Structure prediction request, 305 residues.
Amino acid sequence: MLRQWPCRGVAMAVILEALARLSVLVFVVSSMLAMGLSLTAGQILRPLRDRRRVATTLLANFVLVPLLGYAILALVPLSEAQSVGVLLLATAAGAPFLPKLVEAAKGNLAFSVGLMVLLMVVTVAYVPIVLPVLLPGVQVNPLDIASSLVVLMLAPLAVGLLVKDRYADTADAVQPVVSQTSSTALVFLVVLMLVLNFQTVLSVIGTGVLIALLLFIAGSFAIGWALGGSAVDDRSVTGLGTAQRNVSAALIVGAQNFTDPNVLVVLVIGAMLMLVVLLPLGGELGRRTASAAGESTSEGMTTDD
Prediction:
């Protein structure tokens, strides 16, 4: 009887790993579908007519941030799997969570929605091309990456947009349920990853992973803020949008192309650090924006008097 326990432990680990992969898929698909159900094509396209804004945003997210990731890896020694995790975050942009951050920062919400979709679409084409170049020692199938991103991200987004356009009342009724499903799947994913890789997560503490990720988040925000233009509400969008990477896309690529659990561990830890750092930062930006707006209103009233 005692000999059955190791077998049961292995079976349980296999089940939990399968549930973790399922949680990734449910989170990605439901978050994209929920986003589409809450948007219209006009909301997405309107802010993208400014070519200069689009160009600087693409430069920040797909040139400067990957270079930043490489520079950090040159300064902070990490294992190959950990380095892969950092580079996945560096190449994947367009986080579905961006509008929530921008709302907290009282930034340009319309711009944040358009920016998110633009970066997401470019990520689908960019990652399969660039990742094999950045990771020459790792075998990655570009067609598999592109097809998985299209099927699991762009297709649910397109379905949501179509339903929103044709059946707005239905979309409004279904969207909160789909959004809650996405949030629940994310919680399950984090818990399952911590359970499956508890020892690995503990081993990260005291290593260079946390330092590398914090440097990456801070540097990415600085890049986006610097290239965001003169308007504060636009700079908050580009800063937060550049720092909050597309963990959904990174998880898809990581789960389907790499067997080393340290890749997904870095992605999950990176996702948690982004929330811990960027949510309070967005709130602080929002308070400063509200304060500045209040001062401007007071000055205007004084001038009129």
Q: What stands out?
A: The radius of gyration is 20 Å. Residues 254 and 264 are 6 Å apart (CA to CA).
